[in-house]
Amino acid sequence: MSDENIMNQGNSEEISAGIKIVEEKGIGYTLTVEREDLFKAASALKEAGFDLFLFVSGIDYPESIKLTYRVYSSKRQNKLAVMLKTEVPKSDPTVDSLVPLWSAANWHERETYDLYGVIFKGHPDLRRIFLPQDWVGYPLRKDYSDDHMTVMDDGKKDKDKAAAKDKPAAAAPKESAEKQDAPEQPSDIADANEVSTNGSDKNE
Questions:
Q1: DSSP string spanning 118-173?
Q2: Strand 81-89, strand 28-33: pairing
Q3: 53 and 102 Cβ atoms separated by less than 8 Å
Q4: Which side of the chain, N or C, has fewer Cβ within a 10 Å radius?
Q5: CA 141, CA 113: separation in Å to the nearest integer?
Q6: What digits encode the pLDDT tens for the residues 81-127?
Q7: In the chain, how many domains are there?
Q8: Using one digit for the tens of pLDDT, what is the confidence trace for 12-51?
Q9: CATH number at residue 49
Q10: In a domain, 177, yes or no
């Protein structure tokens, strides 16, 4: 490969030692590693000039949590980015913290712990970042539930929308029968009544 390959900078043996899959996408690479090799591969990337930590995100699967890290090199001419992926089992959701390498990982790891329950070993202050410290459960896991959560499946939502669409518009309120049946009074009679009333007032 050309000098754009990350293996040509830093300790290529350390980078490649724990890598299971390498995918080249655009100006970057996606590297998949075992969780035991995550810190070693990340350290080699840091030495290779990847000075910026952008984020870590999680995806919940039935038996595991998949983690995706994105790091970036501002020092390289082509501004290369790398996605570093690993997986932790739900039975033991632990992985090494990358805060010792990139301080920017601090709050990202706390967020992932708060919402997915991943424990980052070596994190300097691993506690919830959004929810109260005594909160039970991890809201972005698919098996999460609480007493205040409403779950509506897509089928029910579609039925509710269809029912609302087919529902006839509400009829306008009817006027009282007395008002409807009363004949309209001719204007000359109305004027005569007014004159009669005014006259009676004067006589009194």
A1: -EEET-TT---SSS-TT--S-TTSTT---TT-----HHHHHHHHHHHHHSPPPPPP
A2: parallel
A3: yes
A4: C
A5: 11
A6: 899 999 999 999 999 999 999 999 999 999 999 999 999 999 999 99
A7: 1
A8: 455 565 666 677 766 678 999 999 999 999 999 999 899 9
A9: 3.30.460.80
A10: no
Instruction: Answer yes or no: is 160 within a domain.
Output: yes
Burial code (b: 16+ CB inside 10 Å, e: under 16) for 7-27 equals bebbeeebbeebbeeeeeeee
- How many CB atoms are located within 10 Å of the residue 87 CB? 16
Cβ neighbours, 10 Å, residue 148: 5
For residues 117 and 152, give the distance between their C-alpha atoms in angstroms, rounded to a whole number.
25
User: At a CB cut-off of 8 Å and minimum separation 6, what does 31 contact?
Assistant: 15, 19, 21, 22, 41, 82, 83, 84, 85
139-142 long-range Cβ contacts below 8 angstroms, 24+ apart: 139/115, 140/58, 140/60, 140/115, 140/116, 141/60, 141/116, 141/117, 142/60
180 assigned to some structural domain: no
**Which structural domain range is residue 130 located in?**
6-164
Contacts of residue 4, Cβ cutoff 8 Å, sequence gap at least 6: 27, 78, 80
pTM score over 0.85: no
